[in-house]
Fold each of these.
Amino acid sequence: MGTPPTGNALTGPAQIRKLVTLAETTHAEMGQPVDPPVRKAVAGAVIANPFAGRYVQDLALLIDIGAQMGALLAHEAMTLLQAAPDQIQSYGKAALVGEEGELEHAAALLHPALGAPLRAAIGGGAALVPSSKAMGGPGDIVDVPLGHTNAAYVRSHFDGIRLRIADAPRPKELVIAVALATTGRPLPRVGGLTHANATATDGLR
């Protein structure tokens, strides 16, 4: 399983209302066996938006919260998968902003500081972490894209997973999610660079 985040991530700057996790394992598709099974997990946190309802120029607090969430949610997803760091082949991140926030709040969570603790939790990752951000309300879907951890052009790993939380985000909240997978899509057959041939030096190639 993943290495627990340093310290108690629940005592960081984020005001967490709840954590929600979802895992799926696909064993067959179109009557064909999927071997190895496709295993994906997503971990989401419902957190207070400290800047809801007002314009703030300095979003450093949300950037710090993003770092906290990267460590915490990666650990939650890896625990759910029962996976070791070297078993993770794909990752992704997403945020959904309640109506009293703005899209830039999602960007502050996801981009400047979340990636480093996420990569630390899985033992590396040379490729950019795919991301999505949107405005929404309770019960709206959080679409988390997935891509290969070391080479973004591994087509078999262009994928995603969805998370829906019935009571989130409320207007002054944000939902932030991290997704991990141990393989690519079921039965990939569109060609291109493969997981077996990709290396950390491929990065975005």
Amino acid sequence: MTRIRFQRSLDDLKEKLLVMAGLAEQAIQRAVEAYRVRDLSICDLVSRSELAINRLEREIDQAALDLLAMEQPMAIDLRFILAVIKINADLERVGDAAKSISDRVRTMESMAIADLPIDIPRMAALASNMVRRSLQSFIEADPEMAQSVLSMDDAVDSMNRSAHITLTHVMGTESHLAPQALNALMVCRSLERVADHATNIAEDVIFWVKGADVRHKASVEATKAATNSN
């Protein structure tokens, strides 16, 4: 394979991944809207999106593996292909999270809408923004933008912990709202996972561009600090 053909194949791989990214981001937005308005027709759209996302995941993985088999890519190209494979998996899981939320909406069809003391749309907006920024950092090969996504994860984790405390209290004190609170708890958990996948994507961008593995760096540094203080 000539270098020009190889570069064209890399560009095609990137384009396919961006198509999948758009579907995954749209699926999350639709799932949260379905939850907000209890609209099962939107859930149907999410289910169809998941099928398309799963199909693209298989196509992207195969294309990436074909490139690895047919060419001996230079270091940065090799890191790009490996990053695509990992980002591909995370985007598929974002689609899974959207499907999980829409499935919750289906179980709530016969339940009365409850005014629970949590802000799921705000949490969804933050998680979606993380996905969007991580993918923008991929498009622009911008490790600094990717780094900014990592710092946003703490906010989503904090919101998820707060929701867990609040909704557990609701389930314990207002039994008639327990089913709605449990479903809301599961929706929050799915959104927290979306944020985790966005973080993974950002880390993969940093690995691709800089060759630096930043996974678990914060926990490693915290462990070193604790060890040094003893």
Amino acid sequence: MLKVDLAKLGREDSLALDERVPAEAELWRETGPKFEGPLIVELQVRSTASGQVLVQGRLAGRVLQQCRRCLEGITLELDREVYFVFAPSNELEVEPGDEVYELPTRARELDLTSAVREEVVLTTPVYGVCREGCRGLCPRCGQNWNENDCDCALEEPDPRWDALRALNEE
């Protein structure tokens, strides 16, 4: 799916990789992100004189989540510029912030699947919010406060914290 023919890359200056990774692909199993449609992968792959492979491009898609406050379904836009470096294992010199992966020796293909998967999983927000002013749910009855208020009385504050509250009021 997300593989580059290294022999072909050796003959050409660069290769374009335009793929649509389906939402139900094995790649996403047990990762967290659920997609509304395919993940769009648009990458340019080039080799360098030093034997490294540089991958640069864009990942885009729509991620389905629940609002962390009211639990309503939301859709987050994922549109991310990516840059990966694949280097032979004897040349791996990692700088802080670099995305450097091992280039398998004597490989005929370069599989970009794990690098793309890692990038998507690490950059997709774990918790989304439907809107900035979301009021959430009532902790007693579960009423969505964005739709209606409820008559639940909020719990009395714990008296063990009175001394701390007194300091805060001063």
